[in-house]
Amino acid sequence: MVNSGLTEEIYARYKSMVQRISSDFSRRYAMLEREDIQQECWIWFLEHPHKVEEWSALEVRERDSLFARSLRNAALRYCVREKAQREGYHYDDMFWYSKDFIKDLLPAVFSSDHRRVQQVFSEGGSGNKSVAETGDWMAYAADIQKAFYHLNADEQKLVYLFYVQDVDGDTLKDASDDRPTARAAMMAANRAVGKMVKYLGGARPNLKDPDYKKKEETEQ
Q1: What is the pTM of this model?
Q2: How many CA atoms within 13 Å lie on the side-chain side of 172?
Q3: How many helices (H) and strands (E) does the chain have?
Q4: Contact indicator for 209, 80 with CB cutoff of 8 Å
Q5: Domain range for residue 48?
Q6: How many domains does the chain have?
């Protein structure tokens, strides 16, 4: 039987992490209290005793990375729902950018033919109902352009060459100043698109974060 995921040891170990995450989100969502966001993080531990038990047995870096990701997701889930409620709209009406969506749209965004932008949406590239309902093609293209120009010059070059010009990895490496392999250059381009997602509000929070038992427990 698994005890509560929030023990004194866990509290002491992750107090600073919870404080950092709650401070970060309270700056992004100024209408919410930092203490309320902290409370939501601690509730995550209470609701996920099996994950806490399993992850606590991992190597420190892997363990802390998993906890940080889940706590940030819990904080984001709380913040976006609270903001939606306070500002009078429904959470399901929010639009979330993803790396795949941006990659699909980049060639059209940098084309002079705006019909290409609409074509991406009509072919289902967005994977989001709200886009199809609004039909506001140019607003999304403008957002992606803003995020692109928020990148530094090297990141812009990688993203433009790889996702707009559709060059291969070797060509991308040759155009990069400090990437020793094609894979490294492609990964750098992918990370740059990730920065674009973050600039545009971050990825959609995972609304389903169930706890689970370790395999040997479920088989008994």
Answers
A1: 0.64
A2: 27
A3: 12, 0
A4: no
A5: 8-92
A6: 2
